[in-house]
Amino acid sequence: MAPSTSHLYHHLFFFFLVLLLNAQQCPAAGGSWSVLLPSIGISAMHAQLLPNDRVVMYDRTDFGVSNISLPNGACRPNTTDCSAHSVEYDVASNTVRPLMVLSNVWCSSGTLMPDGRLVQTGGFDDGYRVVRIYKSCDSCDWQEIRNGLNQQRWYATNHILPDGRQIIIGGRRAFSYEFYPKMSATENTPSLPFLVQTNDPNVENNLYPFVFLYPDGNLFIFANNRAILFDYSNNQVIKTYPTMPDGQPRSYPSTGSAVLLPLRITKGTVNAVEVLVCGGAPKGAFVNANKGIFDGALDTCGRIKISDPNPQWVMETMPLARVMGDMLLLPNAHVLIINGVSAGVAGWELGRNPVLSPVVYQPDKQVGSRFEVQNPSTIPRVYHSTAVLLRDGRVLVGGSNPHDKYEFGNVLYPTELSLEAYSPSYLDSNSSDLRPKIILPVKNTKIGYGKQLVIVFTVSGIVDPSSVSVTMMAPPFNTHSFSMNQRLLVLDGGVAAKILGKSRYQVVVTTPPSGNVAPAGNYLLYVVHKEIPSPGIWVQMQ
Questions:
Q1: CB-based burial label for 347 (10 Å; 0-12, 13-18, 19+)
Q2: In the 8-state DSSP scheme, what is residue 435?
Q3: How far does the signal peptide extend, from start to end residue (predicted)?
Q4: What is the pTM of this model?
């Protein structure tokens, strides 16, 4: 009898130990969901927040007829398709307006330019070399420049540069890069051998590379399972980083996601630059999925301090395995991992088992206690989903269409036309007395580099002056599980001080030192108090 009792206690001990470990890894869930619109008429495959608090979204022109008509009986030229494949969503009124894209924008890329225009490039078929421009207004629509690119760009990545141009890197069978706008009609298209080296035959695993602007003006480029630091001006690899220890692919179609972790500016310098890459699918998963065998997604993240002289990957384990997840920086310097599935890969009909619960990653906590599982949605967001941070701190979630046309019935994951908002726990009503509200500067204030900026804000509750920070967010272009141009800066500033007037405070910060750290353009400015961000205000770096 004694041995069996001892055996039972032994099992109970390990059972409670596992519970304890899980409790440490995954604290109580948070956040809430709401459906904003049951249908926006299209499936939001690509999305960009604009500086007037509208979000432009689009899918593709060859999905068939969408569920929203073009205005005034208009049809796309030379077609019988009178439906829209792009919409502009107005956050304030919770309404959409149909837009007309002329060429196929499927699996394209884009960048918000310094003047607030979305300049969007490439796509499929008649859209391969097209540049499209959208400047938002109540009656504005897409403008297109045929043959605006030197090379076909499909599944490429774009990034804004310190000189105000954008670089367009890679794409299917495009092992090169180019710029827009062009300096001259004869501007060349330099080759990028790194994209050849990271290309897995018949699978690729290096499309939509993860690209970040390093604070010295060079580019960090990650594709497949490894990365380089690249001087695009001289077409030269500055540094080759170690391959991720597990060697598993993280790029499309084994689609993981990545962020440049928040850049903390101290005395005009960013001392630590780190990248976090999470999720993906194991080697062989793409081939297997095409045979109907859906391998489990990766449950690991790799974090690397690329500013170290000898950078090394540190691997971490997520509470939920995920492929096709989106990683978003939040205003309080946390990372949100949202959308995706736990088996299969990106591609038509190739994903299974939606992951409905987002996860928050807190970069400054100790390894082992950085992840926190959040409350789940009820709507699967599988292949071709999007997620975009809004000015008020909510996350707009849309899209999901793993089919080569609109499919609304008799399929595992029907085409999803709805738009949801995920509200992180910092928006809970019990945090309202801690939430700052910015009084000054006023919206659309123009800000120079390396200047003192006085920020006046209110908080209704008790303020801890040492728990106040100021962050600036560059609004990214989101598609295929990557947010291009995503960048969060933590500004150098003193302790908040109370000033005249009830509940009114000010903090003085120094603006970013250069265009290498913060390229000119539109940013969202936030005051964060005890990890609770204010609503953002739009400012312009120039």
A1: middle
A2: -
A3: 1-28
A4: 0.94
